[in-house]
Design a protein that fits this description.
- The chain has helices at about 5-40, 60-85, and strands at about 90, 95-105, 105-115, 120-125, 135.
- The protein is α+β, with helices and mostly antiparallel strands.
- It has a domain at about 15-85.
- The protein has a five-stranded antiparallel sheet with strand order 1-2-3-4-5.
- The longest helix is centred in the first third of the chain and has 34 residues, at about 5-40.
- It is elongated and about 65 Å long.
């Protein structure tokens, strides 16, 4: 049986989620120029290839690949912390996150976007971000939400 969340439960996590996404955005900001530097030297990681030791690589490339790997591992840890709270990241670029909730007898997504101080919107499961509606339109769940 899926886990459903209430608006209050989600709102309790929003301050921590905001801190996490601040770190995620900082990490992504550090990764972009590092990747570009590696790409220009033809040593950019491909897929999960983050190992720094490449035969014949110059010392600066080894250093950059080591830094890249460390930043990626830190980023993965931050994203895992988000998932541990039962939500799904829908768009990492804008910090869009959904939790499964209920409105009356139907499942909905409680929707938060980085920068919002609380969960103010929800949408139908198949509607996505464009279908967001105010939380004030949520109906009380017809079943227990835990």
């Amino acid at each position: 049986m899926p886990r459903y969340y209430t608006v209050d439960e989600v709102n309790a996590f929003v301050p921590e989620l905001t801190r996490i996404f601040n770190r995620v955005l900082q990490l992504r900001g550090q990764l972009r120029p590092l990747y570009k530097r590696l790409e220009e030297k033809r040593f950019a990681p491909v897929g999960d290839d983050f190992e720094p030791a490449i035969p014949g690589a110059p010392a600066d490339v080894v250093r950059d690949r080591m830094m890249f790997k460390a930043l990626i591992e830190t980023l993965k840890g931050e994203l895992a912390a988000v998932h541990e709270h039962g939500c799904q990241i829908k768009d990492l670029e804008i910090g869009l996150v959904d939790w499964l909730g209920r409105s009356g007898a139907r499942d909905v997504c409680l929707c938060w976007r980085f920068g919002e101080t609380e969960v103010g919107f929800f949408h139908d499961l198949d509607a996505g971000f464009a279908g967001r509606r105010p939380i004030s339109e949520l109906k009380p769940p017809l079943m227990a939400v835990h």
